[in-house]
Amino acid sequence: MSEKKRRAGAAATAASASKKPRVSSAASYAESLRSKLRPDASILSTLRALATAASKSKPPAAGSNTITAEDDLSAKNYIVVADQDSTSVTSRINRLVLAAARSILSGEGFSFAVPSRAASNQVYLPDLDRIVLLRRESARPFANVATARKATVTARVLSLVHAVLRRGIHVTKRDLFYTDVKLFGDQAQSDAVLDDVSCMLGCTRSSLHVVASEKGVVVGRLTFADDGDRIDCTRMGVGGKAIPPNIDRVSGIESDALFILLVEKDAAFMRLAEDRFYNRFPCIILTAKGQPDVATRLFLRRLKVELKLPVLALVDSDPYGLKILSVYMCGSKNMSYDSANLTTPDIKWLGVRPSDLDKYRVPEQCRLPMTDHDIKVGKELLEEDFVKQNEGWVKELETMLRTRQKAEIQALSSFGFQYLTEVYLPLKLQQQDWI
Amino acid sequence: MSEKKRRAGAAATAASASKKPRVSSAASYAESLRSKLRPDASILSTLRALATAASKSKPPAAGSNTITAEDDLSAKNYIVVADQDSTSVTSRINRLVLAAARSILSGEGFSFAVPSRAASNQVYLPDLDRIVLLRRESARPFANVATARKATVTARVLSLVHAVLRRGIHVTKRDLFYTDVKLFGDQAQSDAVLDDVSCMLGCTRSSLHVVASEKGVVVGRLTFADDGDRIDCTRMGVGGKAIPPNIDRVSGIESDALFILLVEKDAAFMRLAEDRFYNRFPCIILTAKGQPDVATRLFLRRLKVELKLPVLALVDSDPYGLKILSVYMCGSKNMSYDSANLTTPDIKWLGVRPSDLDKYRVPEQCRLPMTDHDIKVGKELLEEDFVKQNEGWVKELETMLRTRQKAEIQALSSFGFQYLTEVYLPLKLQQQDWI
């Protein structure tokens, strides 16, 4: 290898006075990394040890973030919604409506106590490593000009959710809006009240059977039942299985995987699926094809909680890639009340990391200059608690901002279409090179 | 029913002087349509007769648009690319390169003959009912300042495609770009040359093993093999099976469906999947979740050609819904050279049609006013040959433009979340109400 390296270096010096790595030298260096790879059996034994460690660790460390006693204590201060079955949600609605009816009969009219979902009420809790909603409620009385309309909309949404649960079906937010366009006016209003109702009932939006559209796909060493149908994800071809929009119809999750590989983009997913990467290194591969949707986040969390596997992430080396990781890990601000059910803490950043660009000698032409907006987003991320907590992440982000360079996963294709699956990922796994 | 109708009408008159249908009357009318439904067995026998007729009709009428002798004749005038296996594409590349080498050795340098893909060269052929590319080639000599760069890029793309085919893998356009960023400069250039290469070799882009990302999903009475894995689409839960990006890995298509239901949107797809509509009326349900991607178009065409089933479309009642139909049926302009392989003619417009809004008394509040842009697109569609050919479509589009109203499939939710699957679609099928 060192011989190859020397030759590559000499060629680069001879051909160019520039310091930028040239394609030919970079390519031969990249090829030389192949010889660093130990036999698969050796890499697999490392992975097995890691998977065992992950499954044995305490729930908080393993990031399973189920509601523990500790959570319950602080739950007095912030809203925690949880998955509830239809019967439980229905009886919660019944109780709310009965209370309203009693209040009306006693001559006091009715009012809903609605948790405030304002930005000022959303905080990041380092202990829990996620964004949560503080407990602060405001009254929504019907007998008040300012709130009469919203109280009506709230009552209507409660009744619609009740109907959906009774029928045992699932609907989209759009469906909900169209059932009473005259009252709701526009969808933003019914959507907002739906989130209110989630907080009021203390249950997740999926428990209300109102689902988001699906975007994600999964392949690999995983079997589960989707609405009773047994799905074997090693037998889903190159296309993969679409992640179901209604997580509560997913059951019987089983796997012999050693880790979960979370991929930002479709193209990398396709490469991994076609090369059946999961047969060489037993894993579950999933992608939301960009910005993660609710269904994919719920699905990942279910896998993590039930299988207790390490989650390794493969994203672009740019601030947007890190943002996507933050959504998976800490949740998005406008769904903060549901962060416990939507987030998967303890995701490891495998690559492509800013330091990889030099380490793997990604050719200068395959790197892109960061735009002003990229730099702004990058600087903002440096201020985020979830980044600050991880020293390795801070360093990487600082490297990115210093070099002002970004790169896509696809940049690895400059060393050959299958470099990702044949060299880059196996070497990463062998070296346990994630942070 | 007439009693119900009278009551509903009376209620409407009593309650409101406005002519607009009100929610309550519309809802009771909508409910009354349920009684119009004949037993499923009767609807099924109609569908069976239609499916038999479709499978027996001549290829052009059935819209199977495989390359027939007739096509071959006119093919002298326009470019027809066809699916080719790897061996055939490889030998075509070899021939091109050998010709270039001979030309260089004889001292004449080399030049590629590249079909022009300019807009002026793209025409709609009524006989074939699709957009095609006229045969008009331009030379791309290497020994010319204006074309030297493009000739080099063309040679490089040919060599990359050759490498991909030799390895028997599939890559994305983005992968291709990243293998030589320095030469290609930006992806638009490698993409454009890739289309050139497709035309030059006379084969589809999927034959080059360069695939688009997948977006579509499918459920229902269909089994096929994806990269050798047997997929039963009645056992894909609510999420469905992701349509594979590489159509040439799809084989062994089998089905007992009576028709294919093409759905514009994810939400309607989810409703149909959850209600297992395909078990009541045997069908294959697919969606590209909006604007159709290449993978979904290729997949639909394969189903249509191999299964010879009628294709019924469920899209929004707006110009955009019709645009989507046009892409499935006639192709998009920038892929005109590949229209024979990407298009599925003879798709029937089942709904939601502008005339349905009054016929099903969709409440006024669930209809949306058309924007100026909508109206412009609608008027442009009226000038399109593929619309003009179908009198029914012209009438519907004129109705839309006259009333200046549009509506989404979801508008039917105003009559209940399952109205789509329980009343609207069964009634449409019973009445053979498509055009």
UniProtKB/TrEMBL annotation, chains A, B:
UniProt KW keywords: DNA-binding, Isomerase, Magnesium, Metal-binding, Nucleotide-binding, Nucleus, Topoisomerase
Q: Where is the Type II DNA topoisomerase VI subunit A all-beta domain?
A: 214-250
Q: Which HAMAP family match?
A: Top6A
A Pfam family (short name) is TP6A_N
Q: What does this protein do?
A: Component of the DNA topoisomerase VI involved in chromatin organization and progression of endoreduplication cycles. Relaxes both positive and negative superturns and exhibits a strong decatenase activity.
Annotated binding of Mg(2+), by residue: E264, D316
Catalysed reactions listed for this entry? ATP-dependent breakage, passage and rejoining of double-stranded DNA
Q: What compartments host this protein?
A: Nucleus
Which SUPFAM superfamilies does UniProt cross-reference here? DNA topoisomerase IV, alpha subunit
Assembly information from the UniProt record: Homodimer. Heterotetramer of two TOP6A and two TOP6B subunits.
Q: What class of enzyme is it?
A: isomerase
The chain positions of domain Topoisomerase 6 subunit A/Spo11 TOPRIM read: 259-429
Biological process (GO), any one? DNA topological change
Can the keyword Nucleotide-binding be found in this entry's annotation? yes
The cofactor required is: Mg(2+)
Sequence segments annotated as region (Disordered)? 1-29
Q: Which PROSITE patterns match?
A: TOPO_IIB
Name assigned to this protein? DNA topoisomerase 6 subunit A
Annotated source species: Leersia perrieri
Q: Which family does it belong to?
A: Belongs to the TOP6A family.
Active site residues per record: Y178 (nucleophile), Y178 (o-(5'-phospho-dna)-tyrosine intermediate)
